[in-house]
Structures are given as structure tokens and as C-alpha cells.
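Feature request, filed as a ticket because there's no other form

It would be nice if the structure record came with a short human-readable summary line next to the C-alpha cells. Right now we just get the raw output. Example of a typical job, pasted below so the devs can see what we mean:
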Amino acid sequence: MERLGIRDIYTLVGDHLNEVLSVAGTRGVRITDFRHESGVVHAADAFGRIYRRPCISLVTGGPGHTNSLTGIATAWQAASPVITVSGAPSTALAGRQVFQVIDQVAMAAPVSKFTAQPASPGQIPFYLGRAYQEAVSGRMGPVHLTIPVDVFAGNAGAVLPMPAPSAPPAMAPSTSEVSRALELLRGAERPVVIGGSGLWWADAGDELEQFLRATSLPYYSVTMARGIPPDSFETAMGYADAALNKAALKAFPQADVVLVLGKRIDYRLALGSARLFSPEAKFIQVDIVLGELGITRNLELGICADVRAALAAFNAGLGSETWPARDEWFALQRSARDEWRAQLAAIASDRSAPIHPAAFFAELAQALPPGVLYSWDGGDFIHWGRATLPAQTPGGWLRLGPLATIGSALPNAIAMQMAYPDAPVAMITGDGSLGFYIAELDTLVRYGLPVVVIVGNDAGWGLERELQGDLCGSTYACELRATRYDLVMEGFGGTGENITQLDEVIPAVKRAFAARKPYLLNVNIRGARSPFTDWQISGKKK
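Raw output as currently delivered:
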């Protein structure tokens, strides 16, 4: 670990880990312990997304390992570099009915880039170095090692050398690809640019801003690209999620050329289908993985390259050239965006109780401190917030990932606050989602992390309640109790407030961030179908 520059272990203690944790602690490794093994891996996943490099998640074997699998699968879908390590019973007892013995390597293999089990202590350096290289190469992702307790505790003897990690290749586009891409974009009447997580992984913010300034192309962002550049940037049009941004819903079907940077053409983009894009639109996709190019939508041009290298090549191809802005095309999108904001504001003008989620987020926007970072959960309440609040900080918009592992926003927020100790961090969740990892509120308190947890409490599974009610005509298994989660937080040693009226929101939010300690706001809201859920329902009805 020291040779690889890894200084963090996220863990939940167990008998298989005592020796390695003891040595790591005495060597100055920062050890952060959680209350659930899946939370351990979620936090390590968030660490990987924030730092663009792996730390180690370390859990015990048996049920500790099986608990961790949801976290590994989440990191797999998010293409996040995590080195997941699980302990295991001693190999000396192999082949007998041993406590907690299962095939952990085989279980992790379908959602890991690389899996292995060292047979001796001397093999650990080799397998750890190999795992690190696999985690950070190409499209990043989780890797897994199962290490039995006797291998952790044994003397190494002969040691297999650890392979030194190599710098990834530049993977730049060819001159002909750059020329063709610029030709298509220059000649388009209604072009759009869509940025995805690859922009964050490649650290391509500066290159993207230079490209957008030179070309004056309208730009939409999604996933880890939110905030790259900020939504306030001159050509930025906000979310690329058409369910949450009516500017995108207006522009995408009319676009004649679509440049997709570091983003799979996946469910978030309706698989490139006629539901969201014209069949005649010409797509240009830049992705680091060849197999992603054109798998859901035929491309006019597919470029297998690092997105930062691709943008640098585009900028070099442009030279000092500056394209004129397409005023009419921009005006259409700005008009749609302004109309959408007016619709949200009209909904938010309802000041009656229980609080409407749109009204809450309109108040929240007035009280948030500058530079706030977001850890977003899933659910109807959250989707109102994603539609309302702008993304202004690169790396400050942490979502669940394509597996949509609700609840993981809490361990994600823990990693985010540890990475940015001086920044304000808001975790935004629903009452259903909070329940999955609610014991991690204890982790917040034990480490004194000043995350402000905002819980939209409508006493139910709001999104499913809306879907069932509309599509099935009845609801089942959708109701919860109106639990006082502020009191739960106080029970763990943090601070909480209960909000029932809209005029309580701004002062409570300001108190919460000013306190600089773990704080939970239990916001009593009404169930209200979000724009995201409307989009889901309309798609299912079709």
C-alpha cells in the first residue's frame, strides 16, 4: 500500500482483519470504520470518484463479504476504481466444514475487473500491484482480493515482486477523426454537446471550456460532469437529463449533430432512441472503451480516445478559429429553460403545509452556503432538488451511479466530507433511502464530520407510490411511519431539527451549516410526483 501511495483503508472490523488493521494503524494508515460492509465499499467508491484513484475497502469474510457485494456492484456500474479486499478463514482448514467459508472470489468476479486470492503472504505484493493496475486502466472499475487470515498473518518468505503501475496511454484521436468531427460540428445548424463522467475521470475541464468558448456550442452535462463547467458558464444549458431539464427535452429532438463526450449512450439518453433524438441526427461519440462506441445508436463518427486528449486535439485543430454563436438555436433553448424554471417557480409558490418539495428546494437555494457540495440519494423528493439546484463545482455533484443504489448517499457523503474537510456538504435523501444505512449517522458523529443531512419525509416510498398509483391503480408496500429522524440523529449524538412550515427552512438550514457538526433536518413534505417520475410514467405508458 505504501509503495502504491495508498494511505486510506475503509473498513468494518472482523476477526479475519485484526492483524492487518493492527499493522496498518501503527504504520500511520488512515483507517475509517463504518457500521455496514456495503457502506464501507460505497464510501471507498466515492473516494475513488473524488480522487480518481483507489483506496482500499477491507471487510471480513463470509457475511461481511456478501454484504460488500452491493457496494462492489455499484462501483462496477459507476466505473469507479476501488480495491476491495475481504478476509477469509485460514487456508489450513480448507476442504472441511469451516465457519464462514464460501467462494468469495467467484461471487465478486461478475462485478469486478480482476479477482484473485493470494496463496501465500509473499504473493500479496504481486496481486495488490496487479489489482491496482487493473482498477485504474482503461475504463476504471473495482477489483477484488480475498486474503485468508493466515495469509494476512504469516511470514512472507519468498516475495513475488509487485508490478509498478504504468501511466495510462494518451489514446489521442487521429488527425482524420479530428478533422471529420470539426467538419460535422461546424456545418451543423442545431448542434449540441453532452458531457459525461469521462470528462471528470480525464480531468478535462480546462480543455472543455476552451473548446466551448471557441465553438459557442450549447452544452449539457450529466453524472460526474455536472459542474464541469458550472451551469453558469456562458454556453452551459444545464442538466442533460431531459426528465429534469426541459431545455434538453426541447433541444435534443431537434439537434442535427450530437457530440457525446465521455458518456455511454445509455438509459439516461434514452439509448439514443427516437424518444429523445431525431433518427436523422448525426452522432459523434468519444469514449475510452472501443466496445461502447455505437452499441445503442449508429454513429456518424466514433472516436476511441481519452476525452481530454480528444478535446486537446479538437482545440489544436481549431487553432485561433472562433465559431459564431447560433443565436436562434440558443434562443430556443434558453426560452425552454426559462419556461421550465417559471413552471418550477409556480409550483414552488405553494406555501401550504405539508411542504411541497418544489417549495422546499426554492427556499433551500436561498440558504445554501457558497461552494456547497452535494451527495444526492434517489427518490421523488431528490429529483425535485436535482431539477431546481444548479451544479457549480466540479466533482461536487455525487450521485448513486447507474445501479441506483438508494441509501448510498450517506456513506458517499462521509467520503466527500473527509476529502473536502473545509467545504460545506449537503446530503439530500428521502426517508425511505435513509433507512438503508441509517447507522452510518453514528459514523458521521464518531468522526465529527459536519455533513448536513436533509431528509424529505413523506412517510413512504414516494416514487413507487406514484408509479403504482398511476400505472396499477392501487398501492401496496409503499407506506412508512412519519419517523422523527431528527431525534434518531440526536440519539446517535448529532444535532437535529424538525421542519413543518416553509418559513422554518431558511433559518434552520443556516443554523445547520453554521454549526459545523453532524446535523440532520427532518423536513415534513407532502408526496408530490416529480418531473422525473412523470417522465418514467410516460415512458412506461408508451
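Something like this underneath would help us a lot:
The mean pLDDT is 94.
The CA atoms of residues 288 and 305 lie 5 Å apart.
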